[in-house]
Design goal:
Strand content: 15-25%
Oligomer: single chain
Mean pLDDT: 97
Largest sheet: 9 strands, mixed
Bound molecules: ligand BES, manganese (II) ion, zinc ion
CATH architecture of the largest domain: 3-Layer(aba) Sandwich
Distance between the termini: 25 Å
Structural class: alpha/beta
CATH class of the largest domain: Alpha Beta
Number of helices: 15
CATH topology of the largest domain: Aminopeptidase
């Protein structure tokens, strides 16, 4: 798909389709009004007949509109004007793409990017427009022998902006494309089944990425992990025939002495629960338990494509969680790389067991800050659903920056407290710390409290993406979140936002 920026009068635009907005109660937007004038009131007539009321999400495709250069006009409902904002714009671009996908149009000009959204500028509109378009165009058909949409006609999408904004809009277009490609990588990896996407496969993907963008990549095998004392991570891998891997990616775009931002992603390629076996229903979804890892890889893809002037390290502990004969048993006590002993009361709380060793490993980079990303707790799905990721941090400024990145990108997070009071819920009779608390209360927070015991030496934030990384149900699949949040966080750090 080719994306481009256009300026000029909509009625003269030579394209196969032009998309213009209509507000609820049939009010034409500026671009629609210009078309209507050139067409001698044709659009207003159609609205008067009641075929299009401007309801959010509705569209109407018109052919052969007189007086205008485009072959087709797509009217896009924007809902109530007073309520039109970030979501209204994204939804309208998505509705446009859905309507276009199965028509014969090869190119489309979207004028919705000219319509102001409160607090947002043309750059934001273009970047988000590209992301919204890619989201609809993504197909989960990698492993289908017949593709979902064999020959989609649509090959070019343009966003119109005022000519004064054209230059910065082109830069925003490039950012949007880089982020969308990163998200697509994350989604593809997330959707792959666990018989293909093994820890070794993920390591191969990291190496491929490193080669493409000239990054440093090191993959530590079981023997190296043993030497480093990663007894907690290794305890999770014991039940599986797949060897665990520890991926270290380094992007150096910043000054030699600039401290790196470290991103850590949970890479459990399949989570059966281990000996604390999960119930059978919907267990297939546990192939997504490497979504944290996939989002770190996707973020690296975007970051490297944008050549951001930052130093960033990616750490991915990856393993399966299987109930094999050598598997860790409930009650087993293991020693983490930090030296702290852990009583594994539930082998299904494995994410924290692999992350804690990665968080200790992160210390050697003397990080500016560390952000871990993990499908850590079912409790987070109960608390926040699919709308917001859970955010917990030991530093308020870092938390604030991540929340803001979520807000701007539309990939939102919501902060939960990490007060000392919750730490009291993690007590073991036999080891330094148990891997679960005695009660189900505040499950997302106690998961983060466990991690907090390993992050005392740097600024740290934890994103629980159990509810946001994939969709369940009929349209199940990986979402590519939180790549938008992470890339916007990095863009801001690089003063490119
Ligand atoms: N991968 C799961 C978390 C999860 C569950 C993500 C459902 C998405 C949907 C994680 O490893 C897990 O099993 N967590 C347990 C923790 C519990 C044993 C304290 C959970 O949430 O039940
Ligand atoms: Mn689990
Ligand atoms: Zn898990």
């Amino acid at each position: 798909m080719e994306f481009s920026i256009k300026s000029g009068s909509p009625d003269k635009a030579r394209c196969e389709c032009i998309a213009v907005g209509v507000f609820d109660s049939r009010k034409l937007t500026g671009a629609a009004e210009k078309l209507d004038k050139a067409a001698g009131g044709h659009l207003a007539d159609i609205l008067r007949r009641g075929d299009m009321e401007g309801k959010a999400g509705s569209t109407l495709l018109l052919h052969g509109t007189p007086g205008i250069a485009a072959e087709r006009v797509l009217l896009v409902g924007l809902g109530k004007e007073a309520e039109y904002g970030d979501k209204g714009y994204r939804d309208a671009v998505a509705a446009t793409m859905r309507a276009m996908r199965n028509t014969g149009s090869r190119d489309i000009l979207i004028t919705l990017s000219e319509l102001p959204v409160v607090k947002r500028n043309a750059i934001w509109l273009v970047r988000q427009g590209v992301l919204a378009a890619h989201d609809v165009l993504f197909r989960a058909d990698q492993l289908k022998s017949k593709k979902d949409n064999d020959k989609p006609a649509l090959a070019a999408i343009s966003f119109s902006v005022a000519s004064k904004d054209a230059r910065s809009a082109n830069a925003a277009l490039a950012q949007g494309e880089a982020i969308a490609r990163g998200m697509n990588l994350t989604r593809e990896l997330g959707n792959l089944p666990a018989n293909i996407c093994t820890p070794t496969y993920l390591a191969g993907q990291a190496q491929k990425l490193a080669k493409e963008f000239k990054l440093k990549c090191e993959v530590l095998d079981r023997a190296r992990m043993e030497k480093l004392g990663m007894g907690s991570l290794l305890s999770v891998a014991r039940g599986s025939h797949q060897p665990p891997q520890f991926i270290v990616l380094e992007y150096r775009g910043g000054k030699a002495k600039a401290k790196p931002i470290v991103l850590v992603g949970k890479g459990v390629t399949f989570d059966t629960g281990g000996i604390s076996l999960k119930p059978g229903a919907e267990m297939d979804e546990m192939k997504y338990d490497m979504s944290g890892a996939a989002s770190v890889l996707g973020t690296f893809h975007a970051l490297a494509a944008m050549k951001l002037p930052l130093n960033v390290v990616g750490l991915i502990p990856t393993t399966e969680n299987m109930p094999g004969g050598a598997a860790t048993r409930p009650g087993d006590i293991v020693t983490s790389m930090s030296g702290q002993t852990i009583e594994v009361l539930n082998t299904d709380a494995e994410g924290r067991l692999i992350l804690c060793d990665a968080l200790t490993y992160a210390e050697r980079f003397e990080p500016d800050c560390v952000v871990d990303v993990a499908t850590l707790t079912g409790a987070c799905v109960i608390a926040l659903g699919a709308v917001a990721s859970g955010l917990m941090a030991n530093d308020d400024d870092l938390a604030e920056a991540l929340l803001e990145a979520g807000q701007i990108s539309g990939d939102r997070a919501w902060q939960l407290p990490l007060w000392e009071d919750y730490q009291e819920m993690l007590k073991s009779n036999f080891a330094d710390i148990p891997n679960i608390s005695g009660s189900r209360a505040a499950g997302t927070i106690t998961g983060a409290c466990f991690l907090a015991r390993f992050t005392k030496k740097y600024r740290w934030a934890h994103l629980d993406i159990a509810g946001t990384a994939w969709r369940s149900g009929a349209s199940k699949g990986s979402t590519g979140r939180p790549v938008p949040l992470l890339t916007h966080f990095l863009l801001k750090r690089a003063h490119k936002l």
